[in-house]
Design a protein that fits this description.
The complex is a heterodimer of chains A (115) and B (113). With 115 residues, chain A is mainly beta. Chain A has one domain (4-114): Immunoglobulin-like, CATH 2.60.40. Helix content of chain A is 0%, strand content 48%. In chain A, a hairpin with a 4-residue loop joins strand 8 (64-68) and strand 9 (73-78). Chain A is globular, with a radius of gyration of 14 Å. Chain B has 113 residues and is an all-beta fold. In chain B, strand 9 (88-95) and strand 10 form a beta hairpin. The mean pLDDT of chain B is 94. The chains are: A mainly beta (115), B mainly beta (113). Chain A binds chain B through residues 32, 34, 36, 42-46, 49, 90, 92, 94, 96, 100-108, and chain B through 4, 31, 33, 35, 41-45, 48, 55-56, 58, 91, 93, 95, 98-107.
Chain lengths: 115, 113
């Protein structure tokens, strides 16, 4: 079935550790790719997005993601996490080729960063 | 910075009752969406709305659901006769263009008893 997969459900890190969260999707053709973050008690906020061009995209708060078309992946990275990065992270895809603008979300990854 | 707002933040209702969830999208946006997240599950698309009509809806969005833009600022989701399984967080989102970034509201937590 077509879907968006986030394989890490819960990640626990110490401050200054590096982070990589996986995201894979199974839609063919052109896709728009997003990472959203939800801090405790807050709403979904856009971290970064990829529509076209340079497959390495930089977002807010030092996050970046790399689109690898051959692997259908859009992994999120941060070289050094902070306690304030504790949140839930959602990968989302719009399969543009399917003539839709809906977002299809992964299950989310809960990140806990300890000082 | 403009934001999407939603009211109420929490709603408790009895099974079979009607509920209306309200959203105020970002003012110059033209595309509006509802999503929901049942506890412990994925955020799921419900419906998209453009030019005063539904442009796409999911299988979840059956005849019990309806959306409306009653005036120039509000966007509402109505559930006609709530079921226990409608308990979820409902998110409204808006976008300036189709297939572009969607900006989300804080959500309404609906509990059906």
């Amino acid at each position: 079935a077509q879907s968006v997969s986030q394989h890490n459900h819960h990640v626990i890190l110490s401050e200054a550790a590096s982070l990589e969260l996986g995201c894979n999707y199974s839609y063919g053709g052109t896709v728009n790719l997003f990472w959203y973050v939800q801090y405790p008690g807050q709403h979904l906020q856009l971290l970064l997005k990829y529509f076209s061009g340079d497959p390495l995209v930089k977002g807010i708060k030092g996050f970046e993601a790399e689109f690898i078309k051959s692997k259908f992946s859009f992994n999120l990275r941060k070289p050094s996490v902070q306690w304030s990065d504790t949140a839930e992270y959602f990968c989302a895809v719009t399969p543009v080729s399917y003539n839709t603008d809906k977002l299809i979300f992964g299950t989310g990854t809960r990140l806990q960063v300890f000082p | 910075e403009p934001e999407v707002t939603q009211t109420p933040s929490h709603q408790v209702t009895q099974m079979g009752q009607e509920v209306i969830l309200r959203c105020v999208p970002i003012s110059n946006h033209l595309y509006f969406y509802w999503y929901r997240q049942i506890l412990g599950q994925k955020v799921e698309f419900l419906v998209s709305f453009y030019n005063n009509e539904i442009s796409e809806k999911s299988e979840i969005f059956d005849d019990q659901f309806s959306v409306e833009r009653p005036d120039g600022s509000n966007f509402t989701l109505k559930i006609r006769s709530t079921k226990l399984e409608d308990s979820a967080m409902y998110f409204c989102a808006s976008s300036g263009q189709g297939q572009e970034t969607q900006y989300f509201g804080p959500g309404t937590r609906l509990l059906v008893l």
